[in-house]
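Good morning C.,

I know you're traveling, so I'll keep this short. The sequence:
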Amino acid sequence: MFQDLKNIFMKEFGSYFKSGLAYFVLAIYLLTSMASTFYLGNFFNIVNQSLYSYFYYQPGILISLIPALTMKLWADEKRYGTIELLLTQPLTYQAMVWGKFMAAWAFSALMVACSLPFCLSAAWFIQIDIYNIISSYIAVLIVSGMVCALGCAVSSLNRNPVSAYILTVFIGTILKITDFDFLIRKFKIANEILLRISKSLNFNEQYETIIFGQLTWSSVVYFLSLILFGLWINLAAVKYRRD
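The tokens, ready to paste straight into the viewer:
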């Protein structure tokens, strides 16, 4: 299984650079990240020891860009009829699903790593909190993995890459902006257990907990659960197609 996973990973990861998509996404990522950091985040006007101006806007950027990496992973296989050929190969479902997912996640990690020169440059001008920044990078990587898993799941259920992209961005945005605390208060539900559960389901709550330097188990489990859920849907869609 490991060799099969490796082959699929290398094929999909290399395809980003062969098609030129990699360079386009990297350029857009750096442009939007720096623009949001300096203009929207007021980098020079607030205390930025943890580079909050940069990390605060990352989820929105990732939700907008990563679907461009995942939209073709399964949708193109269906559109061009190559999925039948793929499913007849002596490959396990897990190798196919994890190989494509890890290729997208690895490229997302490379994309995020392109911001390291900015962080190193900032260290010359301000006294940065290195541990908080490491925690924030972990948050960004986990969120990127979540969006990759979501994108792979949506792509496996679509034949059109464009619709897969739009639907992934839509679902990711809804997940990010939904405030379960507000909904509970809106309906005037005063159950303490329900209030705690609703708070734990808030994307922004969990993400900001990590970028403020509190890398808690609940936040990690929240994002890992979403990753595994997305991969489970992806796996179920592949099994259904093959059967």
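Safe travels,
E.
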